[in-house]
Amino acid sequence: MVVKDQITQQAIILFGEKGFSETSIQDIVDELGVTKGTFYYYFTSKKQLLKDIHHEYISGLLERQSRIIDNDARTQKEKIIGIIRLLITDIADKGPSARVFFREMHHLSDDHAKNIKARREDFRLNVEKVLQTGVRNREFRQGLQVDMIAFGILGVTNWSYNWFNSDGDVSPEELSKIFADMILTGIVE
Amino acid sequence: MVVKDQITQQAIILFGEKGFSETSIQDIVDELGVTKGTFYYYFTSKKQLLKDIHHEYISGLLERQSRIIDNDARTQKEKIIGIIRLLITDIADKGPSARVFFREMHHLSDDHAKNIKARREDFRLNVEKVLQTGVRNREFRQGLQVDMIAFGILGVTNWSYNWFNSDGDVSPEELSKIFADMILTGIVE
Amino acid sequence: MVVKDQITQQAIILFGEKGFSETSIQDIVDELGVTKGTFYYYFTSKKQLLKDIHHEYISGLLERQSRIIDNDARTQKEKIIGIIRLLITDIADKGPSARVFFREMHHLSDDHAKNIKARREDFRLNVEKVLQTGVRNREFRQGLQVDMIAFGILGVTNWSYNWFNSDGDVSPEELSKIFADMILTGIVE
Amino acid sequence: MVVKDQITQQAIILFGEKGFSETSIQDIVDELGVTKGTFYYYFTSKKQLLKDIHHEYISGLLERQSRIIDNDARTQKEKIIGIIRLLITDIADKGPSARVFFREMHHLSDDHAKNIKARREDFRLNVEKVLQTGVRNREFRQGLQVDMIAFGILGVTNWSYNWFNSDGDVSPEELSKIFADMILTGIVE
DNA sequence: TATGAATGAGTTTTCATTCAT
DNA sequence: CATGAATGAAAACTCATTCAT
């Protein structure tokens, strides 16, 4: 069963580097010194492997998101900060996984996509709910269009898979703080 | 010469719908009732077509960005608002082009990518400069990490290619305003 | 277009010799000195080629059958003799085609099979109608179960693809006569 | 040892339904809840399994044929009737086996085919001998070309694996009678 | 007896690209 | 300008078979 995991890990790396379509099964197994047959012993298709990767990723995110949200000791503001940090550190830690997750979604077959899409929406709707609660209890500005703001927040964080390099000048923690500040209090004096 | 444009337009639509790798030259020419030979009369390769599309798109953005930035009558705040509106309306108006531009960049060959990447960075650095100027003249908060904020702003706008549907409840103009408000003044009361 | 025909002819030979599943596209094109790409330029799939072969074969049979049946100068007995000769000579002349037609039918995809099956039934029902008419006008025995007899006659003829060798002692004409005699007048003294 | 039989039975069913090439070892063992390893414990190869099936089938036929033929109380006419009934009821009773036997013979490897073919010929030659004896003792028409007639009789019966459904209007017994009548006395008034 | 992991040789199919006309 | 024919390299996937345990 360890081989299956190795294949998955290698696939994540290669999908992240070259993209899903540009990575062949041969590329993946060559790196591990096994054969294509072995791949198909563990996976029914290349798309199924992609689904597995997405599934794994979104599951992890949802679980950690719920740990943040379900903590009643936190204000809604703190929850938003937590979610921003969750996404940024995830992208920093598991760069390739994140790249696959955010960029290669459209290669999922319709069948597989349904489930994954639904859970990605869950994640977003959870953000929306936190915002909604925050508006109600006057943590956030009245009249906030929470659905669009949720998209905006996720844009800030998710986009970073495109460029963020955790070995650079700015640490994930610092970036999370910068983004949280921007979102919460804006940039004007 | 009109045929070349038709091919480009059709390619944008199909690349946008199905992705670059999933779209074959055959798919493109079938839709136009011409043959693959015709494609290769006008383009040297599939990748070159992609480059052309990217080139066209980023050129348009850069040109319009410079019209916003070079207008000395505007404050830096107004320039940021203008750039946000520029990106959002572009994504709304030319959905497929935008999808290709933001999603299929990594299919550019190294050679082609260099030029496009440089100009994408130019776009970002221009945003950074506006922010920098705004910090200096006290429109924006002191100590703002302008490079990261530029990435953040572009995240908010660019991510919308993933989800924004201009036929929905929110118009591009409204969305631009919502995002500009969030970025400039935040969401807390 | 000549190449397409060559491919079809070669396929018939090889399907006849080795069977459909045992014959690879590679086998077919190797024999002709072209490449697999060429095959897929002319055919959309291996199954489609099989369908084409079946289509061609049954069309030829049906056409010649109708020429026999529509000739009002003939008695029903003569028509039955004609159909027997039609099948036997066909199997003798186009051995491999016949083998493919009679043996490899179950490899047709459901979609393709429908049409072919319907036309094979047409052929059989035409035999049935001749028998029916012959019973009515007292050429054939009263009370004959014409549907079963039609199956019986076709069994006699079709089965010969399994063993008949037109280079042997018995010519197709002779065999047709032997079988017609057996079917029409039996074997008892 | 029961497992080996289960595998054989399941294989017959699947070979009958989908054909030999289209049925994988995996298909067979999946249905029984065992693994491919188990298959190779009992059989040395897929082809050997096919040979076993053919062997079993032809052995049964030959044995029952000899019981019919060796019974000196019967006329040759009665023997022919008996052989027709033998084949038809066999096809009716063991549909899938019969389908495999009559349709998938050409998948036997040369080595295996020799033995099976020889015994199939024995069956046919036995029919020929009955006919020959019948001609000699004037049960059958003088000058009958017994080799061809034997092929014809077997065509009538064997072909029925293609279409005969024992759940239909006509019972195996009835069909046997219809075919025997046709062969013995023909169809003309 | 039976399994589970792995293989390797093969299969069908796709498709960007070339080029003579 | 445009086509139709052909290619070749690579892709995903299949599956009978082996073998250590």
TrEMBL record, chains A, B, C, D:
Q: Does the keyword Translocase apply?
A: no
**What name is this protein filed under?**
TetR/AcrR family transcriptional regulator
Every HTH tetR-type domain range: 1-61
InterPro entries in UniProt: DNA-bd_HTH_TetR-type_CS, Homeodomain-like_sf, HTH-type_Tx_Regulator, HTH_TetR, KstR2_TetR_C, Tet_transcr_reg_TetR-rel_C_sf
Q: Which organism is it from?
A: Lentibacillus kimchii
Instruction: Give the DNA-binding residue ranges.
Output: 24-43
Query: What keywords tag this UniProt record?
Result: DNA-binding, Repressor
